[in-house]
């Protein structure tokens, strides 16, 4: 089975998380969804890729929210054997002086146009490993720093050894975020000079040769967000793996910074939006950081009613999303509106079933769903409830929310509680529903079923953001802070609307701007001018879906990074 994938050289795409499908919980959020869309587009475009990730048998977590709005986490177990095939290859890595065996499952991602992509899921849950080591690949982003370090060793070093054992001829290694950067250390070992050729003080490794083979996509616009380990921990777990002085030169003198390591060992480095690349260049002076703005998978992120519309009027759009630029002239307004009404009915049904909240089909729905964490400011809309009530008295609206907080992100957990408090405070005046368990299906229902997609991050912390791109495929305009992709995607009044200005963020100013835009521009247009509203829906499709898709993104990775 694996033979059908090893006959030609491939790009190895490494990611800590990949969102393969809704019932495989090996992802936590945007990074994993992007990885999934990357592989889905690679399948459709028949790019020779092989993806590597952890099997994460216990998933990220299943979210329950209690009556007080507290998040309760449950393991989200899945059975790899139901979706994937266990391969008969096994490799060893040494952790804390013990041999830890790593096995692998093959998941074959089937594109919707006959393309297929191999995804390797690494698994240490083997009888020959000790009980502690068997758990290394169980919990996505679980455990402490030691656990995380071991996971990243299994991903980067175990993963590249497995590809070799399986007979893959890897042209280039693409690291989706720094978690997998240890793979470059493994390559260094493979490209070490014979000891007798190394003069004192010279690097024992052919670093230029390693750099030629590595591509690094960074996703985090703040230093504090980058994975780092103390060298003390590194030595306890990985003592002697590579020359320590060389490692410090590559990954930082004071601690082992995975982003630095990846930057120093990759010839091609890119950020995930133009602004994010600029921020990264400032954060890491001296590195060439390109920009390849993210995109989302056209077919995967378009709801049924819009898929039918595009299939009828713009055949071929799935392979060539650029065709959507003609949607304004090729599809009539009423057909676009009716497709939206259908998607909205689906969301209303889901909200009723999942939270017992009845949304009014005649009232505008605002949507906000993403990882619940401080910088995303999910509470910005609710920062002045009196103001919100006043807006709703003139132009009624309702809100649907969703999102998980990382179990150890106390601020994020409190935000979920605070949002539930606001829901109670607004009862009878503004209907607000919180859908528990934000996953791929919920995301599609939301981005297609709401009327306006909100995003209010604190600048410049949103590297890209992708949910607004998904909304665009479904004719849903964004009302968003100018950060990440929206700097490139926003044309005021044409594709959606901006919140605040493009300088530094402040909560008060941004909240005022958000409320003002809603009251003065967005809701009056929604209720007062259907033709004008559909024009903005079409603007989102023609100007943004045609560009912010993962086919364009992968064609660029192909030309600019993979075949240099
Ligand atoms: C798209 C998606 C995200 C990322 O959305 P952002 O706008 O980048 O925050 C997170 N979680 C799920 C389930 C998604 O589908």
Primary descriptors:
564 residues, alpha/beta, Rossmann fold, nine-stranded mixed sheet, 21 helices, 19 strands, binds pyridoxal-5'-phosphate
How would you describe this protein?
The chain is α/β, with parallel strands linked by helices and 564 residues long. The protein has two domains: 294 residues, Rossmann fold (3-Layer(aba) Sandwich), CATH 3.40.50.2000; 245 residues, Rossmann fold (3-Layer(aba) Sandwich). It has a nine-stranded mixed sheet, sandwiched between helices. Strands 16-15-14-17-18-19 form a six-stranded parallel sheet, sandwiched between helices. It has a two-stranded antiparallel sheet with strand order 3-4. α2 crosses α21, α11 runs antiparallel to α13 and α16 crosses α17. The model has no long low-confidence stretch (mean pLDDT 97). The structure holds pyridoxal-5'-phosphate (PLP).
Q: Label the overall shape.
A: globular
Q: What does the main sheet amount to?
A: 9 strands, mixed
What is the topology, as strand order, of the major beta sheet?
A: 5-6-7-2-1-8-9-12-13
Helical run tally = 21
Fill in the CATH topology of the largest domain.
Rossmann fold
The CATH superfamily of the largest domain appears as: Glycogen Phosphorylase B
Oligomer: single chain
CATH top level class name of the largest domain: Alpha Beta
- Percent helix, as a range, is 40-55%
The number of strands is 19
Q: How many distinct folded domains?
A: 2
Mean pLDDT: 97
Terminal CA distance: 30 Å
Bound molecules: pyridoxal-5'-phosphate
The CATH architecture term of the largest domain is 3-Layer(aba) Sandwich
Structural class category: alpha/beta
């Amino acid at each position: 089975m694996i033979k059908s994938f090893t006959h030609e050289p491939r790009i190895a795409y490494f990611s800590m998380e990949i969102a393969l499908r809704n019932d495989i919980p090996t992802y936590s959020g945007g990074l994993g969804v992007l990885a999934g869309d990357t592989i889905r587009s690679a399948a459709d475009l028949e790019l020779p890729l092989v993806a590597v990730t952890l099997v994460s048998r216990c998933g990220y977590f299943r979210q329950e929210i209690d009556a007080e709005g507290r998040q309760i986490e449950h393991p989200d177990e899945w059975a790899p054997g139901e979706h994937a095939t266990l391969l008969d290859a096994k490799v060893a890595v040494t952790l804390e002086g013990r041999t830890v065996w790593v096995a692998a499952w093959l998941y074959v991602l089937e594109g919707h146009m006959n393309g297929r992509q191999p995804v390797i899921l690494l698994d240490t849950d083997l009888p020959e490993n000790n009980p502690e080591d068997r758990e290394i690949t169980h919990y996505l982003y679980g455990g402490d720093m030691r656990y995380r370090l071991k996971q990243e060793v299994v991903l980067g070093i175990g993963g590249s050894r497995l590809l070799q054992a399986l007979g893959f001829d890897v042209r280039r290694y693409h690291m989706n975020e720094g978690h997998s950067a240890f793979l470059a250390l493994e390559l260094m070992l493979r490209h070490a000079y014979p000891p007798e050729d190394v003069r004192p003080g010279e690097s024992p490794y052919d670093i230029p040769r390693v750099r030629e083979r590595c591509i690094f996509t960074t996703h985090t616009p703040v230093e504090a967000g980058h994975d780092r380990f103390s060298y003390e921990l590194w030595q306890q777990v990985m003592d002697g793996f590579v020359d320590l002085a060389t490692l410090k030169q590559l990954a930082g003198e004071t601690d082992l910074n995975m982003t630095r390591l990846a930057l120093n060992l990759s010839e091609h480095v890119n950020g995930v939006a133009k602004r994010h690349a600029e921020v990264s260049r400032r954060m890491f002076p001296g590195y060439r950081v390109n920009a390849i703005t993210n995109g989302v998978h056209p077919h995967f992120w378009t709801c049924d009613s819009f898929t039918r519309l595009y299939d009828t009027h713009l055949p071929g759009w799935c392979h060539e999303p650029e065709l959507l630029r003609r949607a304004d002239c090729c599809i009539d307004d009423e057909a676009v509106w009716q497709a939206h009404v259908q998607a909205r009915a689906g969301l209303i049904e889901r909200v009723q079933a999942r939270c017992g909240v009845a949304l009014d089909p005649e009232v505008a729905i605002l949507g906000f769903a993403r990882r619940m964490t401080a910088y995303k400011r999910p509470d910005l809309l609710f920062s002045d409830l009196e103001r919100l009530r006043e807006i709703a008295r003139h132009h009624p609206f309702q809100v649907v929310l969703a999102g998980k907080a990382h179990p150890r992100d106390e601020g994020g957990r409190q935000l979920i509680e605070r949002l539930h408090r606001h829901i109670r405070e607004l009862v009878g005046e503004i209907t607000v529903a919180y859908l528990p368990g934000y996953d791929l299906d919920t995301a599609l229902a939301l981005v297609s079923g709401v009327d306006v997609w909100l995003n209010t991050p604190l600048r410049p912390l949103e590297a890209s953001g992708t949910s607004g791109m998904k909304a665009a495929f479904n004719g849903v305009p964004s009302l968003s802070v100018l950060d990440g992709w929206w700097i490139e995607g926003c044309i005021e009044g044409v594709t959606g609307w901006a919140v605040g200005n493009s300088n530094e963020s402040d909560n008060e100013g941004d909240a005022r701007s958000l409320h003002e835009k809603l009251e003065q521009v967005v809701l009056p247009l929604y209720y007062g001018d259907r033709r004008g509203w559909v024009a903005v829906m079409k603007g989102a499709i023609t100007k943004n879906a045609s560009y912010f898709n993962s086919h364009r993104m992968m064609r660029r990775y192909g030309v600019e990074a993979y075949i240099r």
